[in-house]
Amino acid sequence: MLRRAGQTHMNPVSFTVDDLREQYLREMALVRQTCERTGDGAAAIRRRSAVVDRILVEMWRRAFADRPAQNAALLALGGYGRKDLFPYSDIDVLFAFADDKTEEHSKEAVRAIIQGMWDVGLRASPSSRTVKEAGRFDPDNLEFTLATLERRFLAGQFPLYQQLHQVVFPGLVLSEWNAITQKLGEIARARHAKFGNTIFHLEPNLKDCPGGLRDYHLAVWFAILFHLKETKEWPRQHGVFQSAHGDAEAAFDFLADARCFLHFRFGRDNNILDWQSQDEAASLSIGLETRGTADPSYWMRTYYRHARVVYRRAALLMEHLPAPVSFYRQFRRRRTPIAGTEFFLDQGRIDVQPGAQFHDTAAILRVFSLMASHGYTLSQAAEDRITDALPVLAINVPEGPYLWNALREVLTGPYAAHALRTMHALGILEMFIPEFHGIDALVIRDSYHRYTVDEHTFLVIDNVHGLRRSTREYEQRLAQLLPEIERFDLFLLALLLHDTGKSRRSGEHAAQSVELADSFLARLDFDAEEREPVLKLIRLHLEMSAAMRRDIFDPENVRAFAAKIGSPQLLKMLTLMTFADIKAVNPDALTPWKAENLWQFYMSASNYMDRSVDEARYHSAFDPTLLNRLRSMVPASQQGELQWFLEGLPQRYLQTRPPEQIRSHFQMALSLNGNPVQLDLRPSRQLYDLTVITRDRTGLFADVAGALAAWGMNIVRAGAYSNDAGIIVDSFHFSDVFRTIELNPTEKDRFLESIGDVVAQKLSVEQLLEARRHLTHPSHIRVEVATRLEFDSESSTHSTLLQVVAQDLPGLLRQIALTLSSHQCNIKIALIDTEGQTAIDVFYLTRQGAKLTPESEQALAKDLTAALDAMRG
Q1: What share of the chain is helix, strand, coil (3-state, %, to 5)?
Q2: Phi, psi (5° rounding) for residue 697?
Q3: Partner of 256 for a Cys bridge, out of 41, 91, 93, 866, CB 3.0 to 4.6 A?
Q4: What is each CA distance from 360 to 7, 383, 411, 428, 523, in whole angstroms?
Q5: pLDDT tens-digit profile of 306-352?
Q6: Contact 347, 334 (CB under 8 A)
């Protein structure tokens, strides 16, 4: 045998391990039988650790039996050190020596022990260090340093172990504390990124996936590191990582049960929970308290709930890692109190004051609103305090407008999904919205859906908010629709509730979601006008995806889809919802090709709605559904008049208004004999909505538009509709620029009286307008808008379309309507819109019951252009 200079010859060491191998196989057979009978993985890994302990201690005794005593020791490290030795996990051990000479004298014995471990069937993962080497930090081998955080004495010289335990290892960790924690955080973030920073995988890795056992151990390591830094001592108990409600410990027990099951099932260290393993684990109720066959979806739901707990704990601890501090930041104020609460903001984290007591939900809701607005996170202490306060908060759960106002602030924040996830994880969301509990960690077991239903819902909301920050061209086009959503808050509420029906295993989930949403909206005290768009969007949220499975350029497909949706506003919301919904199914679901098809289909449906608005009119003989629905809402004596009112109204009018509002307009129409002018004025967000119901006459639309302009109201949208009986239902959405009605409540009656007198032709519009002529002076124009007129007699079979793009000026709509009236044009439909200082108005016109001739168009264009130019002064 060759020897280096200065070395002394040592005889090779050998010993038999046949009896130890038989002992190990016998003991492991008992471990497996017990684990399969009881399902207790935590007990199995502790028992295997004890079995391996006895074998290694005996090997050490045999290896050093005939040799001089050496100042060496055998330590268990890592998972073996904490007695978490899974059936086919590696055995991490450290051979420690007082110095190089001792290591050299012990080399043959160590070699024999390692060989014996393999011969017995133990996958050895050994390390050898002198005391001096053990005190050095190698940033490229962080695993060894982490393994020493959980170490146990097995054999050899106990004083040597005490030196390592009490001096060397804590000295190393404390001297390199920042480097160790930062490196640990980097490795963890890289691992999370490898798995897409999500716990939701179809076939998760129980060890390495976010929320897996490595994250649990990550939390343990951080807890040890923080404790050591604070006290300069190792924690006195093994369970240093404790959660207030035992949820982390329960999660570990479940994961341990599942990993033991996988190891025994495959006969090796395989931690992938594939489809077949999920089915078998569910059939055996692995990790569940009740024995017997479980549904695989339910079993995976349990897994995701536990993984979520572990992932959140690990993520929160990583957020406490110290960031490099500049000289300037040392003197900045670190803690900023959050007004009206016992919370404070500390470098992007929301923490809680010591001894804070929570007796109501106001402070809690304020915190989640801030999280949604700014992306702040909660500290572990804040999360624990909120969780502790849940029983008290549950006694006074807010409802009605108070709850809606708080929830709206969360939903409309750019980081809404982040805040909602936190609320969900802490039990706050289900406390406010019990209907959401049914989809908590609910699994859709197919190869298409990547995420649980609750996580899918949060991603849908995140995808909508993310449109504002997108750099992709197709998403930037969709982002143009966001400012056009009139009630963005209601739209987001529909997204939050759209899949709650999946918790019910029978029936179409869209219909079930509508039922659950309706009960929640009732608790928010929503009126019919607020409730209807939310419920309708949920009811129809699958329609666009279904229509896109057919030819998106087929006119009949476009027509059928547009007829079902009816409202351009609903179409915009449904387009955004479909985009966000598809994208949230799995990362590859929304391809650029599919996104392009979505946009093309939206454009086709939008154009169809704009071009065919006068063709689709209601006739009870062809569609009695609406008539029958409304009949149940009116007295029997009025049902005949109801059909008279509905007959011939445009479908656009009927589909953009809830049944309760249609009933109200019908009741107003019945009162025309007593009062020939019926007016209804109601606030609508920042606008006012004025409905005028009367009998048709020449210049009526122009007179109402002029009266509103005379009062200083800025018309933002308008619609003119009529039925077969000549009853006009005109609607005007306008802003009160000078806050006349808001600041002078008594003016409302005078305003309505004035409008009524103009409609009844008791008051001249010219007299009202005279006082406001100065506002049309060009000095009030910020951006010049050139007048453009476009005629289209091809798109509609009944009417000629006139689109007017012009400078938005007081009295503009009246001037257009007067000019149309002077050319004997009948306005079948008027669609009025305003973008900044640009008016974009579309009129469906007939003359003597027919489309306009080219000569009529030319004459009208000439006079209309002159009239609009004259308004500029």
Answers
A1: 55, 15, 30
A2: -155, 165
A3: 41
A4: 76, 16, 21, 13, 19
A5: 999 999 888 888 876 765 444 334 434 467 877 777 788 877 788 88
A6: yes
